Amino acid sequence: MKVETILWLLGAGITGVLGLLVWLLLRWRVTASAQRAAPVRLGAQREIPPVLMPVALTRLGPYQIERELGRGSMGVVYQGYELDGGRAVALKTMALVNEFDEEALADARSRFFREAETAIRLQHVGIVKAYASGEDQDLAWIAMEYLSGQPLTQWTLPEQLLPLPDALMVVRLAALALDYAHRQHVVHRDIKPANLMYDPDTRKVKLTDFGVARLTDANRTRTGLVLGTPAFMSPEQLAGQHIDARSDLYSLGVTLYQLTTGHLPFMADSLGQLMYAITHESPQDPRIANPRLPAVLAEIILKAVQKDASMRFQNGAQFALALARLEVVLKGRTPHAKPA
Ligand SMILES: Nc1ncnc2c1ncn2[C@@H]1O[C@H](COP(=O)(O)OP(=O)(O)OP(=O)(O)O)[C@@H](O)[C@H]1O
Ligand SMILES: [Mg+2]
């Protein structure tokens, strides 16, 4: 073989190897940059229409939104301020458009505003003041007084209970507020620690969600029926029967049970078992969960949670009176309250 031929073959080989190396290098860089770009998830972003990206709510009706206060089964509760006047408000919102199908929407909307009117009508020191209602940016809202304090759920664990006299006072004030509402022919339907706000500094108690609770009873056609826990519901409410004031007082009895023992009267592993227990089983004596409870208090609680409504307290005033009597007895027992 000629020397020129050998040199040509050598050159071609080196060029080929170099070309291969350049190709591999280029490929590696493209792959690496694609991998670095991966977290951006362009594909995924393109799949979400921009309209569905959450947008921070800054205004709602005549209010400036400040922050989120909490979330319940209906929707988000915000803290806000009146744009003219500056009064602080809590704004309870519900996305009716998301919750109800088109046929049910008109009915849901008129029920929402009717119930808001009910809440606005109630004027009592133990009931959160509702100011106004409206609809804006597909959110139905109810503006109410902004409350200091915490929902009573803060004091429902065995190691975090209120002092007994405070728990009795809180439930007595709630019973009096219910007595007022019932005399206005308004049944709350969702009495539970989450709907009772208590401020230990001012010792004020306020029932919240009057009227609003009834909306959540209605079938929400899009998201399904959101019940929350039925643990506080009376047997007649669970059965879907007509309910009256005594059903609220049953729920207040369950609340008292939980506030003084840190336990619920009925516990079960499933919703079905819980509903069965509420309907058919006797509740455990609260003194088993908390042996320090006075016998009279156990009697009050067990009377409040009787299955037969005619065996319970018949109105809020009766319930409040039974608690007031016990409070007087307990005060007499404390060394400070005795005359020197
Ligand atoms: N008027 C108010 N002032 C201050 N905070 C409030 C007021 N109303 C509600 N909140 C806060 O918003 C939270 C959510 O309230 P929301 O009523 O939506 O839910 P919930 O009572 O916990 O459950 P549910 O929807 O079953 O009633 C409450 O736990 C409370 O912290
Ligand atoms: Mg609530």
What does this structure look like?
- The protein has 340 residues and is α+β, with helices and mostly antiparallel strands.
- It folds into 2 domains: 59-145, Phosphorylase Kinase, domain 1 (2-Layer Sandwich), CATH 3.30.200; 150-333, Transferase(Phosphotransferase) domain 1 (Transferase(Phosphotransferase), domain 1), CATH 1.10.510.10.
- The chain has 12 helices and 9 strands.
- The protein has helices at 3-37, 42-47, 96-99, 102-121, 164-183, 212-217, 235-238, 245-261, 271-280, 286-289, 295-304, 316-333; strands at 59-60, 63-71, 76-82, 88-94, 130-136, 139-145, 150-151, 196-199, 204-207.
- The strands form 2 sheets. The chain has a 6-stranded antiparallel beta sheet. A 3-stranded antiparallel beta sheet has the order 7-8-9.
- A hairpin with a 4-residue loop joins strand 2 and strand 3 (76-82).
- Helix 5 packs antiparallel against helix 8 (245-261), helix 5 (164-183) packs antiparallel against helix 12 (316-333) and helix 8 (245-261) runs antiparallel to helix 11.
- Bound molecules: adenosine-5'-triphosphate and magnesium ion.
- Magnesium ion is lined by residues 72, 194-195, 208-209.
- Magnesium ion (MG) is lined by residues 72, 194-195, 208-209.
